[in-house]
Amino acid sequence: MPELHHFLMERLALYHNLEYDSSEEKKPRLIFYNEKDEVVKTVPVKNMKADEISSLLESLGFYKRSQKGEKVPEEFQNFPLHAPRDEL
Fold first, then answer.
1. What is the distance between the alpha carbons of residues 80 and 68, in angstroms, rounded to a whole number?
2. Which of 49, 62, 74, 76 would you label with 83, given CA atoms 20 to 30 Å apart?
């Protein structure tokens, strides 16, 4: 799984509010939780390319830093939860 390894080594740290659990290495997957720690979505990533994983995370609203160690802006601290729309 060289693409997954590439993502883990090079890109994982760029994403805010994302953690890696190696307990399921034979069946790697992304597990998304809500604010109550309930699983809301599971996505197998064994056959995904690093760019596909990145695209998925960005489409779900995960904040991506431009470099490792960069501070996450205050308005993105609680993401990937989508910010509520302003009432008109």
1. 18
2. 49
